[in-house]
Amino acid sequence: METETREKPSVSVGFDAAIRTVGLTRVFEGWFGRNRVVALDHLDLEVRRGEVFGLLGPNGSGKTTTLKLLLGLIFPTSGTAEVLGREPGDVQTNQRIGFLPEESYLYQFLNADETLDFYGRLFRIPRAERKRRIDDLIRMVGLEHARRRRVSGYSKGMSRRIGLAQALINDPELLLLDEPTSGLDPIGTREIKDLVLQLKARGKTVLMCSHLLADVEDVCDRIAILKTGQLQVEGVVDELLTVQDITQIRLRRLSGEALEHLKTILAERKTEVLEVSHPRSTLEELFLRIVGAAPANDTHDD
User: What's CA 44's distance to the chain center, in Å?
Assistant: First the structure.
């Protein structure tokens, strides 16, 4: 049987931290012949207010487990976490969080307006304000043409759009997005990424899990990569992707003779140096180098 122990936080989130975890661990005890699984192993993580943070990892790395712990849906085996200065699951804190799960669980017989109205009522948003937000959000996610259509008739991409709109209905300070661009075509993906950047510009904090590395590379300020429940690397995207041991120089109007004697005559030839920098790898290359081909945890959770 699964054993859950809940510890009180022993850390305090600083002014610029929206999320902080210290030694956060979740173990799923084996039963009916299954092995004990360490889904998350002593995770130390900080997400700063106002940034877009990417949480990456292969299946079974602990991403979804981390989100569930931050939302208070499951309890840690050990370690601590704080979200917006409070313990996960706190009712007042949840009023300030928006969550888009990997699979949107929507009432299929409702249309877009009715779906957002339902969630707005759960947050006790006054009727006039609720209507204004519904109109703004439907326009924001590009569903004006289908706002009266039942959700049962939506494509996967449309379902993601209305799911994102419901995550924003309470105008949250913190957004937890699990695979936000899943099922979208390239145009829809670009629109969602632009929306994430707009939310950042409005001071929102976004924690985004995604398997689509190019999406994370485009919008995230910092990233963390998990592997078998353990944090492998964390940092600013540009710094992690810069190849520090190689220097590249961009030059204009470099003659063949100067190219042959570059090391000795560059200054003499007065060649205009446009840029001296380090080459940059891709997030896909970094991810594969960190994660490799190691087997994932034997669990259904990410």
Answer: 16
Q: How far apart are CA 68 and CA 290, in angstroms?
A: 24
**Cα R_g (the chain), whole angstroms:** 23
Note the pLDDT tens digit of each residue in 38-97: 999 999 999 999 999 999 988 888 999 999 999 999 999 999 999 999 999 898 899 999
Of 190, 166, 164, 187, nearest to 177 (Cα)?
A: 164
Measured between its terminal Cα atoms, the distance across the chain in Å is: 21
Degrees (nearest 5) of the Cα angle 44, 50, 106?
85
pTM here is 0.78
DSSP 84-152: TTB-TT-HHHHTTEEEE-SS----TTSBHHHHHHHHHHHTT--HHHHHHHHHHHHHHTT-GGGTTSBGG
CB 58 within 8 A of CB 135: no
Torsional class of 171: left (φ above 0), alpha (ψ -120 to 50), beta (otherwise):
left
Distance CA(244)–CA(19), nearest Å, equals 30
Strand, helix or coil for residue 252: strand
